Amino acid sequence: MTTTFDSISHQLEALAIEVPSWAYGNSGTRFKVFGSAGTPRDVHEKIADAATVHRLTGLAPTVALHIPWDDVDDFAALGTYAKEHGVGLGTVNSNTFQDDDYRLGSLTHADPAVRRKAVEHNLRCIDVMDQTGSRDLKIWLADGSNYPGQADMRARQDWLAESLRTIYDRLGDDQRLVLEYKFFEPAFYHTDVPDWGTSYAHVSALGPKAMVCLDTGHHAPGTNIEFIVMQLLRLGRLGSFDFNSRFYADDDLIVGAADPFQLFRIVVEVIRGGGFGPGSDVALMLDQCHNIEGKIPGQIRSVLNVQEMTARALLLDLDALDAARTAGDVLGAHEVFNDAFYTDVRADLAAWREGRGLPADPVRAYAASGYQQQIEADRVGGSQSGWN
Length: 388
Ligand code: PSV
Ligand code: MN
Hints:
Blueprint: H1 5-8, E1 17-20, H2 43-57, E2 62-66, H3 75-84, E3 88-93, H4 112-132, E4 136-139, E5 144-145, H5 153-169, E6 176-180, E7 190-191, H6 196-206, E8 210-215, H7 225-234, E9 238-243, H8 260-272, E10 283-286, H9 295-314, H10 318-326, H11 330-341, H12 346-354, H13 362-369, H14 371-378
Helix pairs in contact: 2-9, 4-5, 7-8, 8-9, 9-13, 10-11
The structure holds alpha-D-psicofuranose and manganese (II) ion (MN).
């Protein structure tokens, strides 16, 4: 039996994608960071831009914060401000990679005083979460070494476990720690949390409130990411995604731009593993930078790409797939899989949006809205936000 758009459209209501505050600020490569007119000067303006994405798409109800980039004196007031704009505050990202003390590491540093400083920073992030009502603390570490012999990799794992334990023990009942992995960069020889296995080992030792964060850009070329998704869901430890696209390294490009089929395959496993819909607590986040293209339209395109692949994945005819698999029909199963991937759902999604009072084409609606012209006129003076 073929699955129709109408039969799956109600499931799309559950789709919520968290956008990162830093996507609205300036970013670039180590060669140049280009500024752009209208870029937010502070977290309030970032939230206003994120709220615009949500208003036009209905897909992005929360914004992730990054401390200290988004530091304010009163986070409860920031939460109220976000609410007034129609969005909520989400994951709090800690940052132990931009202070001189962290040159040789943070939670894994050989010096207990530096480890303590990095732990304290994360504890402060949990204080922030208490005020914003955020559920997740996301930890990504730049820790690692550049040369064989430089660091005691084994000792650093033990120090990491100890540091994470102190942070974990401070979490409230409804809070979680998500530990992100990345195979290289900025360290080039070894990284202290390079892969899902290492992250899984640590979060499993910590307890049920610790989960793995999977950033799609943080794998070696050719890695079967959907296998990792399947395995982490199977093990009950997939906490969140950082969605983006990569051609080469951690490119942080628009999700679904480089390899839409990979995004489809990932979403299929998310749905298969219970990571989507009512009862699921997997956070779908973007972790992207818009260096050249418009930032707000870049975010709109991103959430639409996720929606499109979710719709296609929901269209997968599971009965036909199961029948082909059971019969050992290799090509038949592959064809059923590809039939869903190649289904063009854009017109159906446009109608679905209109039925909900949303613009059929949010990218064009943004261009016609005058918002960009308004922020370019208003946001003059001050310094534009970036990774600082
Ligand atoms: C660095 O690779 C990174 O993109 C990580 O993925 C974090 O999630 C993000 O920066 C913000 O800290
Ligand atoms: Mn990330």
